[in-house]
């Protein structure tokens, strides 16, 4: 409660001022997956004191005039580490910070970039989705990573939002012919998913619209997600940076494991419903054939099944 | 037990519960009649003693485990959507049956999830075999209870311990636009075969956000106002099947599994009223098949 009160003290513009950010941070290890595109791959785990919340993929794109960051990690210290990694490589201004969706492991490092005064870019549904959950996210951050991290995890309202279709992608010019395209999607993994496409290198930052290794989690619309995959596959990309999994993978092949999982999950649940089965049976049985293919399957699959079962009841 | 002391304690307990602080202390905790469940602690039973005095003041509640069962996952996948099923199979020679079933989530700010008034076309006899299921929010690790009131005025309970937390304050609606677009829509699911005169378990779904009043929105810096379904009345061929009083503990898009006995073709009707006094109705024709 103390923590949420601190959040409540934010200004009416919803701009939360970073009161404290951790001072020292090791630069995160990053791979240059394509010229000027750097990615840090998180571990396929839940956030805890050992991994410090280093559980999702983060990256940055360097143009000739500016830098764009894509996702900032699950804590201020992870965000700080990402910023250190940027500063090891370039002194160019960090002009944009794109949050691919409202989940904590993609946004709680935002405070580390406050001093750069970037434009925070997010989906037009981002703020309402985040604010409906921020209280719980803050509490969980404190439980998982401690009070200091939670205190530093302040957030800024997006300075620029992107509308899903019929809205058009946002083009951000980083200089030297590097223009990145930020696309907003209809509800899929969440109701506020964004992707970032670097046309110069045909590299797609998919955010959590693409999972590899770690089981996809559904916090939006499973059917919408499966539909979005066809459009994702058609994007002119040669490689993808998934939200979870390796730093990069060939595109669109990287989509296949997730497509299979979601398809089996949906089909299994439809079958269970057709036989008059229950939501409890779905939690136990649905997609069990996919168990050996994913990390955190036992942790996340039953809940996915419950979510999808309740959604498919309205088909 | 001293009636005066008890009544005073009950008032305190009711106040404490209504403030959302779920642990109420009694001066003289007494032994619970029902069997202990899993990880339930003495505190959980003290809380049950407080809760039962709120809903059944001064009444004796007997152990119903011989004919009454309560099913729920020990560890819930989603605390905002915990499936709960109550089943009863009365002894063949029982001269009584079940008139109402009350489902209580002890640890919730409003423990009452639903009070099911059961009807049978043979008026007054109630149900002998029944299965009622719904989905509830669970705010913290807690015992949950089903209390059956019999036609001869006795109370029996079954209980279960559930590990789930945060279900009341969990944000609603993964896809808010879609959810609000179908507000008040209803769906009836029937099994593939509906035999004449057989016990048929149907599922009624009502699309409604069922906001608990505990979901905090930081844009408005307030709690999303409670907005929930208050009552559901189900009838078949003009005869009441079940009237349910509900509260904030039901999950978003409330789901009810219930049993009815179609002796001939008829309309199954549902009338749902929410906390803004909006009424939604559903009407489905049911044509039972002769048993082969």
UniProtKB/TrEMBL annotation, chain B:
Gene3D superfamilies in alphabetical order? Immunoglobulins, SoxY domain
Name the UniProt key words of this record, in alphabetical order: Signal
Q: Which InterPro entries match?
A: Fuse-rel_SoxYZ, Ig-like_fold, Ig_E-set, SoxY, SoxY_sf, SoxZ_dom
Cleaved signal peptide residues = 1-24
Looking up Pfam families in the UniProt record yields:
SoxY, SoxZ
Q: Does the keyword ATP-binding apply?
A: no
Q: Where is the Ig-like SoxY domain?
A: 56-168
All copies of the Sulphur oxidation protein SoxZ domain together span: 194-283
Top-level taxon in the UniProt lineage: Bacteria
This chain belongs to the protein called Quinoprotein dehydrogenase-associated SoxYZ-like carrier
